[in-house]
Amino acid sequence: MNHRLLFVCLGNICRSPAAEGVFLHQLKSQDMEKHFVVDSAGTGGWHVGRPADSRMRSAAQQRGILLPSRARQITLEDLQTFDLILTMDADNLATVQSLATEVGPMATARIEPMLSYATKTSLEEVPDPYYGGDAGFEKVLDLLEDACEGLLIALSSQV
Ligand code: 4NP
């Protein structure tokens, strides 16, 4: 069985492309890529077409993780084509839930907070690093590595 996963944040240039890259990196190291389709999107459209933020890319690269994605905005169709949509914070969660309401019964994706899969933190949201310093980008990666591990364990029993 294939899993279709969409990671969602606000701008799709920091947290969700990092989640996508971290998860793909873990999939590759476990030779699990063939069982997954992975993508990311933003609830906002300001950065559409841009690569991930250079601070996010360089923090990830120092951990051996590449972030090749280009920003796009989530669409109503995404609620029908992905199995699981993982949101970074409460605003993203509310926005995606309201898109699902708009789509109605055809919206089949499960929508869950990314950090519901983390085991090493009590945080419920991945903090937005955009206006902060370098430590914020490291924190994002720490949280996402933890949550991606939990996510992969949860889903790999269903491949
Ligand atoms: P992201 O971070 O949601 O993790 O991609 C942000 C990127 C850009 C902006 C806000 C958050 N912005 O306001 O432009």
TrEMBL record:
GO terms for molecular function: protein tyrosine phosphatase activity. It catalyses: O-phospho-L-tyrosyl-[protein] + H2O = L-tyrosyl-[protein] + phosphate. It is an enzyme of class 3 (hydrolase). InterPro entries: LMW-PTP (IPR052995), Ptyr_pPase (IPR023485), Ptyr_pPase_sf (IPR036196), Tyr_phospatase_low_mol_wt (IPR017867). Its EC number is 3.1.3.48. It holds the Pfam family LMWPc. Residues 3-154 form the Phosphotyrosine protein phosphatase I domain. Keywords: Hydrolase, Protein phosphatase. The active site is at 9 (nucleophile), 15, 128 (proton donor). SMART domains: LMWPc (SM00226). PANTHER family: ACID PHOSPHATASE, LOW MOLECULAR WEIGHT PHOSPHOTYROSINE PROTEIN PHOSPHATASE-RELATED. Belongs to the low molecular weight phosphotyrosine protein phosphatase family. This is protein-tyrosine-phosphatase. It comes from Prochlorococcus marinus (strain MIT 9303). The lineage of its organism: Bacteria, Bacillati, Cyanobacteriota, Cyanophyceae, Synechococcales. The gene is wzb.
